[in-house]
């Protein structure tokens, strides 16, 4: 894997395999689940502080700066790491998780159930 951002191509499964070398924890499933919740909260915290401190509005009037976008993307990378670890711990590839999600969404769209709430819609 190279660090050249302009030429790097990476599949979800490659990413998941590459992150395994940094997955050092004693409690499979629970550790990455807790980390996922924590990192998702950090994404929200960054956005909250942008609204509070920088008067960012998400209505097209005062959108994010490049630096703010990079900050959010960095946190999203941490979220992705925990998703990859949790999926690995339950013996799923990230590719399979993504495909299953697309199938679910396509089914909901076909049944006009994209909106609303609940897993079984």
Fold and architecture overview:
It is built from 4 helices and no strands. With 121 residues, it is mostly helical. It has a domain at 12-92: Helix Hairpins. The termini are far apart. The relative contact order is 0.13.
List the helices and strands and how they pair.
Layout: H1 12-19, H2 30-54, H3 66-89, H4 94-110
Helix pairs in contact: 2-3
List keywords for this structure.
mainly alpha; 4 helices; 61% helix; 121 residues; Helix Hairpins
Fraction of helical residues: 55-70%
Largest sheet: none
The CATH architecture of the domain at 12-92 comes to Orthogonal Bundle
Task: Note the overall shape.
Answer: globular
The CATH topology of the domain at 12-92 corresponds to: Helix Hairpins
Order of helices and strands: HHHH
Radius of gyration: 17 Å
Provide the residue-averaged pLDDT: 92
Structural class: mainly alpha
* Residue runs with pLDDT of under 50 for 5 or more positions: none
Brief account:
This protein is mainly α and 121 residues long. The protein has a domain at 12-92: Helix Hairpins (Orthogonal Bundle). 61% of the residues lie in helices and 0% in strands.
């Amino acid at each position: 894997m190279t660090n050249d951002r302009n030429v790097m191509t990476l599949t979800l499964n490659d990413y998941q395999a590459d992150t395994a070398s940094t997955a050092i924890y004693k409690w499979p499933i629970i550790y990455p689940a807790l980390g996922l919740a924590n990192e998702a909260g950090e994404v929200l915290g960054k956005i909250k502080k942008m609204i509070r401190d920088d008067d960012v509005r998400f209505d097209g009037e005062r959108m994010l700066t490049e630096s703010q976008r990079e900050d959010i993307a960095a946190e999203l990378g941490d979220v992705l790491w925990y998703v990859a670890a949790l999926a690995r711990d339950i013996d799923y590839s990230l590719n399979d998780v993504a495909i299953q999600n697309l199938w679910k969404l396509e089914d909901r769209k076909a049944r006009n159930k994209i909106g609303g709430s609940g897993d079984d819609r």
